[in-house]
Write a structure and sequence with these properties.
CATH superfamily of the largest domain: Ribosomal protein L10, N-terminal RNA-binding domain
Number of domains: 2
Shape: elongated
Radius of gyration: 26 Å
């Protein structure tokens, strides 16, 4: 890899560290190509990405970034999983680690907050952006449905009373 390629990699990694909602750092020693492809496919499906880069270049890219202290995690064979959604990469990484002992999560970063292993697990337990939007929409829609039901109920009650009075008068 020549100097220009290294500079390009450092720039790309810098963008990842700046723009990602969450970055998870893990060891992948002993994983097969098929296992790595499986991880990439799952991450892509969730809207995230997987990146393997030289630790030295990643540390250079971290300089001056809010999450610069995750540079301590970059030792050995590391892989970065990241996503714009602050939960997606952590969820996929956590699920993948449960099924593959060779994939060991070390920690990560969420904005300026550095996460240890337990922090990544806690982030993975949070609902995703889509789940939160669905929950908010249902909370917003529930009162409207209750109001519509309340407005419609008296009308049906009045109609029932009127029909009963009509039947009584007819009899």
């Amino acid at each position: 890899m020549d100097r220009a390629q290294k500079e390009k990699v450092v720039e790309e990694l810098g963008q990842i560290f700046e723009s990602s909602g969450v970055v998870v750092v893990a060891h992948y020693t002993g994983m097969t190509v098929a296992e790595m492809q499986d991880l990439r496919a799952k991450m892509r499906e969730a809207g995230g990405s997987v990146r393997v880069a030289k630790n030295r270049l990643a540390k250079i890219a971290l300089e001056g970034k809010p999450c610069a202290s995750i540079g301590d995690l970059l030792t050995g064979m590391t892989v970065l999983t990241y996503s714009e959604d602050p939960v997606a990469a952590a969820k996929v990484s956590e699920d993948f680690a449960k099924g593959n002992q060779k994939f060991q999560i070390l920690g990560g970063a969420m904005g300026a907050s550095v996460l240890d292993r337990a922090g990544v697990t806690a982030v993975a337990a949070l609902p995703s952006r889509e789940e939160l939007i669905a929950q908010i929409a249902s909370c917003i829609g529930a009162p409207a449905a209750n109001i519509a039901g309340a407005i419609g109920a008296p009308a049906s009650n009045i109609a029932g009373i009127l029909s009963t009075l009509e039947e009584r008068d007819a009899a």
